[in-house]
Amino acid sequence: MPEISVIIVNWRSKDYVRQCLSALSKYCPIAELEIIVVDSASYDGCGDMLAKEFPRAVFVQLDQNVGFGRANNAGFERATGEYVWLLNPDTEVVGDAATTLRAALQARNDVGMVGARLLNCDGSLQTACVQSLPTPLNQALDSELLRHIFGVWGFKAFRSGSQPVEVEAISGACMMLRRVDFDRVGRFERRYFMYCEDMDLCFKVRKHGLKILYVPEAGVLHHGGASAQKQFSKFSVVLTQEAVTSYFTGNYGIAHAWIYRFCMGVSALVRIPALLAGRLFPRASHRKNSASLKKWITILRWCLGGERWAKAYSPS
Question: What does the alpha-carbon distance between residue 197 and residue 70 come to, in Å, rounded to a whole number?
């Protein structure tokens, strides 16, 4: 019986799934892996591709798009391995990441979750692979500059060398847990459609007295992480705000959710004038500046009640 069950959720990502499984076949001891691919009602031909190219993979077809977390839960229902490895379809392992992550879990009974060093397509570090759990303040102040200067939001982990280091949270693009622990903490919360469900799972793991480790020797390419940060999507921006609000409401109470909304509104009021001023300088990256400006205007409108999840969501 395979020791590790790899769960991949597909939504119009058939080509990425092919690349992901090809890398697993190349670098990992495939006999130790159980591959489970869940299609969240995208019907993009992923099942046919798997039948032809990866016949050992288990394919689960959902009849509606239930979101990232619930789709992973559906895949877990079919999993039989001792370890559960949650992978985004747009990832590719670099070397034997499976064995490295599993070894980190086996070494310590007090560890409940491990994550890999995520890399951009050019091989550079994808800093979002390590994070701090959300607070109203760190969400409002979040910026690449502040991360580097103060070493917050998990950045201290990148200065620890090659040894596994304890962190507050890791990206949902690559998570490995013991099967019993994933089940014990309650799996992914159903209230999230997309975004923040990985932070919620990290919160629950730590709440159960288990530690989370960042394992830098396990490398995984993550194609979508860098490009997503440079593009503006009203759907993504609004849904993120709603998801973080749900995180605070569910884990800390409604007062924290309102504090978060207030802090984000203040942050938007500070950032928008600064971004407008930045457009006056010819050396500024106008594309990145424009995306940031649209993002923070949308966040301000959301804080004032002008943007809602239902208005932003489009299944097309």
Answer: 10
Residue 153: other Cβ atoms inside 10 A: 24
**By C-alpha distance, which of 99, 3, 1, 5 is closest to 57?**
5
Please report the DSSP string for 255-284 in residue order: HHHHHHHHHHHHHHHHHHHHHHHHTTSTTS
Q: Look at residues 236, 154, 158 and name the one whose alpha carbon lies nearest to residue 196.
A: 236
H-helix or E-strand spanning residue 184: helix 179-184
> How crowded is the C-beta side of 20, counted as CA atoms within 13 Å?
30
Determine if residue 123 is left, alpha or beta; phi over 0 gives left, psi from -120 to 50 gives alpha, anything else beta: left
Q: What is the pLDDT of residues 62-83, one digit of tens each?
A: 999 999 999 999 999 999 999 9
**Alpha carbon separation from 83 to 99, 101, 105, 181, 190 (Å, rounded):** 11, 10, 9, 9, 22
Radius of gyration of the chain measured on its C-alpha atoms: 20
- pTM to 2 decimals? 0.90
- Listed residue (278, 280, 304) closest to 292, CA to CA: 278
Please state, in angstroms and rounded to a whole number, the distance separating the CA atoms of residues 176 and 96: 14
Rounded-to-integer distance, Cα 274 and Cα 151, Å: 23
